[in-house]
Design goal:
The structure holds two protein chains of two kinds. Chain A is mostly beta strands. Chain A has no helices and eleven strands. Helix content of chain A is 0%, strand content 54%. Chain A is globular and about 35 Å long. By secondary structure, chain B is an all-beta fold. Chain B is 0% helix and 60% strand. Chain B has no helices and eleven strands. The radius of gyration of chain B is 13 Å and the shape is globular. The chains are: A mainly beta, B mainly beta. Chains A and B meet through strand 5 and strand 10 of A and strand 4, strand 5, strand 9 and strand 10 of B.
Chain lengths: 115, 112
Amino acid sequence: DAGVIQSPRHEVTEMGQEVTLRCKPISGHDYLFWYRQTMMRGLELLIYFNNNVPIDDSGMPEDRFSAKMPNASFSTLKIQPSEPRDSAVYFCASSLTPSGIGELFFGEGSRLTVL
Amino acid sequence: SQQGEEDPQALSIQEGENATMNCSYKTSINNLQWYRQNSGRGLVHLILIRSNEREKHSGRLRVTLDTSKKSSSLLITASRAADTASYFCATDASNAGNMLTFGGGTRLMVKP
């Protein structure tokens, strides 16, 4: 298996623009997670899905952030409009079980810079 | 909020030496995991230790867990330059719906 695949790896955009980050989880994994990593706040869970259904989005910082999982092999994280404070590395991860029970498989991340 | 906190925040050692990183957490846990992150890459799972286990080994890694002190340690023996990375502990708090919360990480540099 190719692992969790994220795109784009790098994105530079201007404030106010829409940003869409994409993730393909490992086939057969029922759980998908979106994390954000910054120097100041570390690794934060934004939202997670179980069988394509959003379970907990309490980590989503604002209404500007939205996430979807239209099918088992694809998820998006959208920021509209983007702001400089959204600059971070966004990770997608998937797992067979709830994350505390088994290991998480992370993608390589999408580094977002909002100017 | 971060459940686990690693100590030290940064560690620099010579190749061949052992590296010890510590993790403290606040609430009761079911499991504790350690992950490694190379610069510019995603996190990679190293080891999971359950709350009823005290020690676990995997290759050059040794993890201990002391639930009475709410702490864990990760020992890397005979370190190599390739071990240079950030190491994170992640806890599955008993009241957090089996979801992981990551600590701030320890940045390890192994000098050749």
